[in-house]
Amino acid sequence: MRHWLPALAFMATVTLCGCAGMVDSMSAFLHAGPWWTAAQSGKISSRARELEAHGELAMALDHWRLVDRISMDPAAANREITRLQSKIAESVKAHYQNGMAELRKKKPAAARNHFLAALRLDPAFQPALIQINARFSTFPLAVRLSSSGDQPATVAKKAFGDEKKAFLVAWFNDLPVDTAMTPGTLLILPKLVKTPPKKVRKTKLPSQLAQANTLLAKNDLDGALILARQADPDDPNVQTLIHIIHLKQATTQIASGQLEAAGPSLAMIPDGFAGKNAAVEALQAALQKQQTAIALGQARVHFDQGEYQQSLDMAERLLKEAPESVDARDLATEARYRVALDHFDHQRFLEAREVLEKVDKSHEASIALNKTVRSRLADLAQIHYRNGVKHFINEDLKSAIAEWEISLACNPNHDNARENIDNARRLMEKIEALP
Q1: Burial per residue of 219-252, b for 16 or more beta-carbon CB atoms within 10 angstroms, e otherwise
Q2: How far apart are CA 317 and CA 292, in angstroms?
Q3: Which domain covers residue 69, as residue numbers?
Q4: Could you report the per-residue pLDDT of 355-372, keeping only the tens digit for each?
Q5: Is residue 26 part of a domain?
């Protein structure tokens, strides 16, 4: 009896829903159930593996957590979550260590990229966050390690020459003012420097520009841009250098296929700046090529699925936009042949001939099919011509004209059919004019 209980429960549910006029909502009810949601776990799992294969570890982890919530058997998802968490932790640690190594090599831009990569995987990873805040903040900060017996007051004495500035040490590091520090604690301190006189700043600007130009020559675009932005924004030389850096960023992004990023880079350059128009044209050409490749892929999908007319239509549209595309031309030739062949197989010879009027002279199969189609049409033209003669002899002029018109459609060079049509129409006019 127990074996029948689920079935009886299901039938009762359906009956009750029907009685209440809610049968239409039964599908929605089933789709909302946990068994339906759990059925999606396979697709989400596949997507998680794809994301991991492309290096998107954090997104892959989120997908596995979703599988864990909806799956009927979350054991596999738990294993994947544990494995990915371990993999992310190792990657975060590796990026942090690489960033510290780049700092020792005095390569701040490369170090910053590693710290940001670590935070992208784990936004709460404090060592990388501290380095970003300390070394790359727009606020002037410095980093210092505490010594044995240090307190905020002793650190203020060493760093600022004034124990009364202990409140700055405490505030910037979220410490009590009278706390004792563990030796080797990483401290973030503000740089307390006097504002340099205007004449001193002027002597530094050329140095900053020179350093920025040096980094630009080494293709360190991020580092060059940081230095250039720190210079006097009202200096025309500074503005020119910033535009040059953005232009080089855009051309590099276009060459590497990062077309979405190239647009914003070009937008930072004023119109009329030397080289911008050429870069814009290169971006537009790259976008057109990308769109052509996407459309060509869709046309090939239609062809592979046997949808030859759709494939031909898309290929011909592509040829209008990109007439130099050899791939689009080859696909159009093959699709045109398949469309004509389908018409021929179904004895639609007139339609087949119309399609083959644009036949590629180098496509042997199309040439052969065109000859066969025209031969069949010539035979049909003769058959319809004779049928027209029979109707004419039987004084059925309308039927005769109809047959000769079909004959002429099959063979436009059938002069007898054309002449007979004219004669028959004149004869009909005379007959109709009789009193």
Answers
A1: ebbebbbbbbeebeeebeebeebbbbbbbbbbbe
A2: 10
A3: 34-136
A4: 998 888 889 999 999 999
A5: no
